[in-house]
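The instructor's notes for this session suggest beginning with a concrete chain rather than abstract definitions. Hand out the sequence below and ask the class to guess, before any prediction is shown, which regions might be ordered.
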Amino acid sequence: MASLWASQCLARSSRAIRPFNGSRFSKHYRLATSTAETATLPLEGIRVLDMTRVLAGVNRNKKSIGLSFAEKSGREILHKLAAGCDVLVENYLPDTLKKYQLDFQSINQINPSIIYASITGYGQTGPYRKRAGYDVMVEAEMGLMHITGPRDGPPVKVGVAVTDLTTGLYTSNSILAALLARARTGKGQHIDVALSDCQVATLANMASSALISGQPDSGRWGTSHRTSVLLLTPFNAKIFEASIVPYRSFKTQDGDILLGGGNDRLFGILCDRLDKPEWKSDERFATNSTRVENRVALEALIEAETRTKTTKEWLDVLNESGMPYAAVNDIQGTLNHQHGKWQKTSPSGL
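After discussion, reveal the predicted structure:
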């Protein structure tokens, strides 16, 4: 999915062609905007050859053609397409396309200016290069599942194929950089992108703190706030797991709401909106450090209150309070979110 996502990101601003490996030619189809609309796209004129596998839902703005790599006529068509394209994206195991003369070296001889992006699970080199890449496997192997899920529960995958998606975004950014370089040099290049590399990169501060200190991370924290703070001294490096309480989701009568008392002032606002002003002077909750110490007691008290109203009622109570809060929406709630609808219809929206 990562390669399809990368080419779709480019197709939003350019024209893409997607040949897929099949036994016979298919009908051509097109999901593209009109000439008047595409004339204003930032990558108008850039042609993308998407040689990735078929997956419904990520083929907007692409033409499609089916052909057989095993047939000489199919390879000739691909060579002709590559000769007239600016970018090629593929997601086959390393060396797979070499026997079809569709690898970077072969395509580069046909079109020296092409940007050739290869997306695999583990890259073009190394001991895992021949392993297929699956989002959930890479999430597990490269640390993401270990830090995702409830505090006392098992590791879980993210709700979407987030490693595929971030890899696609890294790839599209790399392609844009390569196009800028080509504008100066006239030369194309081979981009090697791996799901494993991108997943490690997105561990961000969690990985950097563990790397520098050499200490284990603190595991899963559910929706609670957690960030790794690295303290360096002349003698050692130590990780402190800084935390903010309250900063997590709480049950309501009909769903969940996320509340963020990010500092003492915001916690005070929350107390007032929950009609519990006495919590502000309770020595157990007076500062964030004491709230962290008394996390279990405070979170139980808050959830006892949030369960008394619906999510919508709490949204109304917290409206314009100045503190962070959000309903935990399902997919339909997200797609029908009033702000999302405004963004779609406003001149400044998507």
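Then share the key points. Residues 150 and 340 are 29 Å apart (CA to CA). The longest strand covers residues 15-21.
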